[in-house]
Each structure stands twice: as C-alpha cells, then as structure tokens.
Amino acid sequence: MNLHAKLLEREAAGNPVTVGVIGAGKFGTMFLSQARLTAGMHVVAVADLDVARARRQLNSAGWPAELYAASSLDDAHKRRATFVTSDADAMIADPRIEVIVEATGVPGAGIHHCLRAIENGKHIVMVNVEADAVAGPLLARRAKAAGVVYSLAWGDQPALICEHVDRARAAGFKVNCAGKGTRYEPHYHKSNPDNVWDILDKYLNISDRKSINPKMFNSFVDGTKSGIEMTAVCNATGLLPQSDGLAFPPATRFELADVCKPKSEGGTLEKAGVTEVTSSVYRDGKDVPHHLALGTYVVFEGDTEYARRCFKEYAMLPDKSGKYAALYRPIHMIGLELGISVASCALRNEPTGAPTGFRSDVVATAKRALKAGEMLDGEGGFCVWGKQTPADVSLDQELLPLGLAHNVKLKNDIPEGGALKWADVVYDPNDSAVKVRREMESAFGRRNAQAEAVL
C-alpha cells in the first residue's frame, strides 16, 4: 500500500528508479504513457528494432519531443531524458539501469533479453508471457540465484490472478479455481489472420484495420493466449491445469462460484485447485449477460459454517450451496498499470507473480490437417493454436511448445486437433531458445511437473 510513498522518497533523494524498456508495441507504449508521469521513475532508454516507430509511439503517448531526444545513455542519465535505440543488449548492460521491461512478445527474444538482464544484475519484468510459458520456471530460478527479481507484469491478467490467489490464501481460504474471462466459441480454435475479422467485427468497432496486427489479435481469439496466461498462473501459484486443458464454460460474474467448482459438486471443473477461463458467449452464440470478458477472478472455499454464513450476509457471490464464494475484478488496465511491477521489483525486491515450478505447458495443436513439408507460423497463425496441457503429459509425450512452433518445417502429417511433437518438426537443437527450453525440461522434470496443487 505504500509504493507511491517509496517512489516519492526516491524522487526527493534525486535517485529515481531507472528503467529500460524493450519493445514499443501496444503494451510497452501504454506503460510509457504513465511512466512519464510517475514521480520517482525514470525511463532511461527504449529499445526497439524500429527506432522511428518507437519515436512515433512515444509521441502518441504524450511525450514531448525533447524528453526522448537524448543522444546516448550517458546523455539520458545526465538530463533525465530517454534514449531511443535499436541496441537492447547495450541498454541492458548499462549498470545504472535497475529494471528491464521485456515487452517484445517474441519468445526467443524474450528469453535472450531475460538472460542478459540476469547476467547484468537487473530485475526483469516479463510482459512477454509467451517467453514465460516456454521457459519461465528456469528463468525465475536463475534470477533468484543471481539475486534479482523475475516478475510477471502487473496490469496483465496473469499477475492480477496471482494476486487474487495470494490474497485468498493469505486470508486462510482454500482456492478452488482461478482464471479470467474471454469471448469464446468452439470454432474459434480454427480462426486465422484472414477470417478473424469475421469474429472481431461482431464485438469490436475497429474502423482502421491497418492499425492492428491480425495475427496478434487472432492469438487472443483462437484460445492460444488463454492457454499461455493460465499456464503462467499455474506455474506461479501451484494451481494445476485440467487434464484436457481449458473448457471455456459460459458464466456470468454472479455464477462464477457455481460454474467454477468440481463436477462432483455440480460445477464444470475436473477437480479443485485448477485454472479455468469463462466465456462471454453461450454455445448457441448468444452473449452472456454480466460476463467477465476482460476481467479476472478467484473462487475459494469457506471451511466453516460461520464463514459460509458470512459469504451470504455480505453478498460475496456464493454458489447455491453456500460453500464457495467468488471475488472478481471486472477489467484490467494492461500496460497502464505496469509501473506497479517496476516499483515492486525495485523498491520491495518482490515480484508481482513469478514461476515456482513447471506444472503447466502450452503445446502446439493443429488447427487443420497439416501436411509434411509445411512451415509452421506460430502463435495466432494459420497452422496451430496453443492448448494448455499438464506439464507431465507434455514431457512424457515430448510435445512441442507453442512458443517454438514458428518458422519450423513439419516432417509428418498431423490431423486436425492433433498435438505436435518435437519429432514432428525440423528444429535447430543449437537455437538458444530451444537450448533453454530443453535445459528447463531437464532441470524440472516429471517429479516437479506432477507436484500436488497447493489448495
């Protein structure tokens, strides 16, 4: 509750928290729009492969031109301005920068930048949840060994869900389920960057289609992003994935405790202690009223009759039995809230969520019948979507992580809905991201993947 006060102390001392941002896309730019206005915080540099675009993004985020006109890192520190560069590694190596924000969204790049940050003694805020899904548990372990913080990004849904879970447990409750809402229909798993507009136009008013990346948006529609984000939650909280991944049951905000409980008690879950994503669309295509499409939630259990009575007395959204209750947040503010993670890492030495084990994975799953010789195009593309899968199953069956299913050639035919395996593709074992992933699999292995849920 006192991050702002701590930031003001740093401001008064003339020693603001120093930040380097990698990636000036939507999330990074949203953070930059607020970071400029945050006392006690100085964005020393912004690294992006397209420097001209990064400058345009800063301008659109309200930055006066003189603030991002620093000619070098030294000049940025001296004038408390910002240096825009294409050299992320040089920025990471600057000993005066405390926190690195990785917001590229590219798994391989995220892993590389994270390792460089750890080597250079920097805290790392991993907006790049795609990279976290591939190798987050190993990256977090390395960061801890180096005495720096590896953190999920506050403002993005996984970190918010982790806080729901942490607060419920800190108050003595058993967590039954946690997750988020989204818009989902079963046929969405087949969507691609060309036909995604048929879905988006139904609920988003996007007048300028050139303003967004349809491949990126499609990853939110086809179920991939949900699988990635719930994997991050499982690996950070001890919750487990369900055997067949996410079911996307429709639910209003007021039905969360009834829907997100075990089937044995009238709900939809395989068991207690798991993640689930609720849909804002019924299976007949009609919209769910009072849905949670942009929000997050946790469902927890009242262990005593007294607590259950309190659920009802204080309108805590109990289920019909009165045993469970739900807490939800209706929205998330994306990069506008990211400063919370930056401040928490630098001032408290605490992450806003971080992997503690390898419990969940996201595996490449065929959107259609795929033929040997085809090139996979990764997240949000035409070939595969990412399905949340128990990590022990992924390891036992040698399944291919979704984050490494980009620009690799198929060796075998894959039926629609089939899970791809490492043996189905031609991959480079010396690729840095592949090596880190393989190291993580070896370091954690099946015993850790099968860890019991922490209820």
Count, helices: 16
What fraction, in percent, of the residue positions are helical?
Answer: 25-40%
Structurally, the number of domains stands at 3
Q: What is the CATH class designation of the largest domain?
A: Alpha Beta
Structure description:
It is a single chain. The protein has 16 helices and 15 strands. The protein has helices at 3-12, 26-35, 51-60, 73-79, 88-93, 107-119, 129-146, 157-170, 196-203, 214-221, 224-237, 256-259, 305-313, 339-348, 391-396, 432-449; strands at residues 17-22, 41-47, 83-85, 99-102, 123-126, 150-152, 174-182, 274-279, 296-301, 324-329, 360-366, 375-377, 384-390, 406-410, 425-426. A six-stranded parallel beta sheet has the order 3-2-1-4-5-6, with helices on both faces. It has a four-stranded mixed beta sheet with strand order 8-7-9-10. Helix 8 (157-170) packs parallel to helix 11 (224-237).
Q: What order do the helices and strands come in, and which of them pair?
A:
Elements: H1 3-12, E1 17-22, H2 26-35, E2 41-47, H3 51-60, H4 73-79, E3 83-85, H5 88-93, E4 99-102, H6 107-119, E5 123-126, H7 129-146, E6 150-152, H8 157-170, E7 174-182, H9 196-203, H10 214-221, H11 224-237, H12 256-259, E8 274-279, E9 296-301, H13 305-313, E10 324-329, H14 339-348, E11 360-366, E12 375-377, E13 384-390, H15 391-396, E14 406-410, E15 425-426, H16 432-449
Parallel strand pairs: 1-2, 1-4, 2-3, 4-5, 5-6, 7-8
Antiparallel strand pairs: 7-9, 9-10, 11-13, 12-14, 14-15
Helix pairs in contact: 6-7, 6-16, 7-11, 7-16, 8-11, 9-10
